[in-house]
Amino acid sequence: MAWTEPIYDRVLADITNKTSKGFFNVADWVRINGNTQIVNALINVLKSLNITFDTLTPPTIATIPNIDDVNDFVDNIERIRAASGVPLATGLVALKNDYTSGGIAPDYTTVNDWERDLDLLRSYLIKAAYYTPYCGVTSVGQTRFWQVRFRTFKFAAPDNSIRSPRAGVAVCGTGLQRQNNFRRYAV
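Now predict its structure.
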């Protein structure tokens, strides 16, 4: 299954003018459900989390999902959002998944939130796959004072008499640390 571009730019004018975005139909349900499966696969690969989904019956033109189907549908998206670890401050929205029969039904803004959350999660998870944390000066085998004392020095003077730590080198053992961690930097 391939990622299908989500539609989350629905506005009230789409509803009043009865455009194609103004209706929630089987194609929308299938697109959102498929994108949910893809984001779930990303979380499974990147975080080794296997999220169990509620079983959904695929809708057809002749069937209408009931309120339990809608709650299960949204609950699957909400489980992914919660398991992803991406904070709400990044633009994600906590989704309502407790609709009741005869109560307030999801509207176009709610469906926009469903699809936007999935799109944001997908983009953040793909970025997370390429994220590599870098560290500063790493040293093993000496006291903390010796590890950080060179951070206050400027880079080498023109006569190259001051030594500075070389960032990005991680070595083990005091002998290796003394041999490889310090390099003269030309000005």
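The longest strand covers residues 164-165.
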